[in-house]
Amino acid sequence: MLSVRVVGTARTLLNPTRLLTSRQCVSRGVICALECQSRSLSGKGTGHSILKLTPLEKDPELLHNGNIKNYCTAQVKVSCWNCKHALDQTPAFFCMLCKVVQPPAEGVSYFQIMDCDYTFALDTQKLQKRYLQLQRFLHPDNFSQKSGTEQEYSESQSALVNKAYKTLLKPLSRGLYMLELQGLRIEEGTDSGADSEFLMELMEINEALDAAPTPKEANKIGQETKGKLADLTEQIDAALRKGELQAAKALLAQMKYFANIEEKVKEKLSQFM
C-alpha cells in the first residue's frame, strides 16, 4: 500500500490550489493518507484538510437505505464505534456497513463539514442546500427509537452542523473563523487598531441614526451601511486570496463595526412600527 504524507506550512495547507486534490491522487493511483493524532489536519497549526466530501446531490449512491453512504476519497484509520468497520472518509456521518450514526470527527473544519471550498467568497446557496440535506438525515428526531449512543451522536452531529452553517453563512463570522484557523483573533472591546478618523466616522453615523426622525432617514443609513459592508467584503476576499492576513484582520475589524450599525438600524426601524 502506497501512502503519501502531506507536509507543509499552515498557509500552504490552507490553500487547496497548492495541493493535489483527491481526484488527482486517485487518477494517479496514489492513496492519500493524512497522518496525525486527530485523524485529520486540525485547525491549529496545520489548518484545513484536503479531504473533500462529495456533494449529496451529485452521487445517487451516497444515499442508501435512508442513510448517508460514505464516499471514499482517501484512507483514514477510523473505525465505526458499533461494528468496527473501517470508515473511509472524514467526516463520516454514518457507517457504510451497519448504517449507525457516527460521532463528530476531531479536527475537521466547518468547510469540510459543509462541503465548501476554503474561500471567503463561498456559494451560500450551496451551503444552505448542504445544511438542509445533512439535517434531514442527522436530526435527533430520526433517532428517537435508536440506542442512547446513537441519540447522543445525532444530537452532537446536528448541533455541529448548525454551528458550522451559522458560522459560514455570514461574511463576518466566516472571515473571523478563517482567521482563527490561521491562529489570528480579533479581541473583543478593543479599538486600538482603528484610527481616529474611522472612529469619528462611526460616531457620526451612530449619532445620525439615533436622531433619525423618520423610517426613511433610518433606511438611508441602512443602505449606506450595506454598501460599506459589500465593499469590505470584496476587500477582505482579495486580501485572503493574496494571503495578506493582517490586512484581512484589519478589514474584518471594520466590518464588525458596520455590522453592529446594521443591527442598530433594524432596531431603529422597529421603533417606528
TrEMBL record:
Gene Ontology CC entries for this record: mitochondrion
Q: Which Pfam families match?
A: HSCB_C (PF07743)
Which intervals hold domain J?
Answer: 108-173
Q: Which SMART domains match?
A: DnaJ
For the biological process aspect of GO, one term held by this record is: protein complex oligomerization
- Parts forming coiled coils: none
UniProt keyword Metal-binding, yes or no: yes
Q: Which Gene Ontology terms cover its molecular function?
A: ATPase activator activity; metal ion binding; protein-folding chaperone binding
Which Gene3D superfamilies is this protein grouped with?
DnaJ domain (1.10.287.110), HscB, C-terminal domain (1.20.1280.20)
Q: Which family does it belong to?
A: Belongs to the HscB family.
What's the protein name?
Iron-sulfur cluster co-chaperone protein HscB
Organism name? Sphaeramia orbicularis
Gene that produces this protein: hscb
